[in-house]
Design a protein that fits this description.
By secondary structure, this protein is α/β, with parallel strands linked by helices. The chain has eight helices and six strands. The protein has a six-stranded mixed β-sheet with strand order 3-2-1-4-6-5, with helices on both faces. Helix 2 packs across helix 3.
Amino acid sequence: MTALTETDDPRALAERAGIELEDSSALEILTWAADTFGAKFCVTSSMEDAVVAHLASRAMPGVDVVFLDTGYHFPETIGTRDAVDAVMDVNVITLTPRQSVAEQDAQYGPKLHDRDPDLCCALRKVAPLKEGLTGYEAYATGLRRDDSPTRANTPVVGWDAKQQKVKVSPIARWTRDDVDAYVAEHGVLTNPLLMDGYASVGCAPCTRRVLEGEDARAGRWAGRSKTECGLHG
């Protein structure tokens, strides 16, 4: 493996790779990441599906898959995490916020997600992920350009200024049909909620089923201008 050296500029590396790998397959992109970063590379997964985790396990068997347990997940999401851990060649690592839901309620009042969803996301997603990624130099996401207009320019490899890490989005160019085809071909685990009207699965209090014609992210924080939790924008 060609590991990233101390003299390499990771931001320049990411930007160059984003251009050079734009037309590469998802597996080729993940193989590049595995070869470049080795054990300093991981996959982050919301357990909406295990497509990127499955792809990464082909490029790097035993790869770390980082999951954020916010305390507000649907039972189906936790079940998907447990199934991925049991049957796939990956190492699932579960991150949790510093405060339990009860502790957060005691400090900020109940249902912070209704009153200040940005703060709730910052406490239960952004902060624990930043801590959890400390030992890595690069991480993969399942972001796709067709998810929503805010993700339309997602590079296949880019620089995450917030995390100060290389961010790999190997299926950025995929469509929903591409995802479905990969799931069918490889028997990849998916969250059961995707078969129950949910197109994007987040925390239970802030996620609803989507209506016909809505984009995949429309069911997240419905009725608000908020479209991202803060992890990706």
